[in-house]
Amino acid sequence: MTTTVKTKHRAMWASGDYPAVASELVAPLGPALVQAAGIGPGRTVLDVGAGTGNAAIAAAQAGATVTASDLTPELLAVGAKNSPVDLTWAEADAEDLPFDTAAFDTVISCIGVMFAPFHTAAASELLRVCRPGGTIGLANWTPEGFIGQMFATMKPYAAPPPPGAQPPPLWGDPAHLAGLFGDGVTDVSVERRRLRVDHFRTAAGFRDYFKSNYGPTIAVYRNIADDPSRVAALDADLLALAERHDIGAGAMEWEYLIYTARRTG
């Protein structure tokens, strides 16, 4: 990732209040991934794109020795301040990890590495730092699920991505992951799951929360801020999206993919 892209990416995730999103909406994903990856005492674990540590903290609570890494130091600072267990917090680029080859028994990412724009580079780094026979475990939003569809809805309003960048929700497509990891892994397991989100009473409540708190949504609105008609159109599109996914009283189910595999070699 170039310095300019990296700086913009870091600033995007530092905007709004992603720690609130992590704690109020997606907290269950971390423990679910830790369980699926079989993390327990005696394991050395790297969490890539750890954010505030939903998965990293759960891994440490399971008895593992954990390093939580993320490009955005503001998120790591919140995680370190609030963590009830000891672990290492390290600023790191998922596409160029500052860790030795084969350094970890288990490498995980919970809706984190999927947002690194250059997928092949990030996947190569996950493989590199995982020891042969070790585990790679991912939890990613699917393209078909609510968050994947939210990104598709925002795409026409967003700034053009960097050349060569790929959409984050592709990490929730098993075929895309098979292409990324190739023969670097074996014993692959994929499972689609749903996260029930009942934080919002209305579709408008969801939209306004994401406009204020979620970095990618904030960035898209900033891109069209000087065009009130486009702002109104995106408002309407996000409202319609949430209304289509309402399963009653504002509750929604957000699909994600749990992926686990064993590192070959």
UniProtKB/TrEMBL annotation:
Its EC number is 2.1.1.-. It comes from the Bacteria. Pfam families: Methyltransf_11. Signal peptide: none annotated. SUPFAM superfamilies: S-adenosyl-L-methionine-dependent methyltransferases (SSF53335). The keyword Methyltransferase applies. Gene3D superfamilies: Vaccinia Virus protein VP39. Residues 46-136 form the Methyltransferase type domain. Keywords: Methyltransferase, Transferase. GO terms for biological process: methylation. It is an enzyme of class 2 (transferase). The keyword Hydrolase does not apply. GO terms for molecular function: methyltransferase activity. This is Class I SAM-dependent methyltransferase.
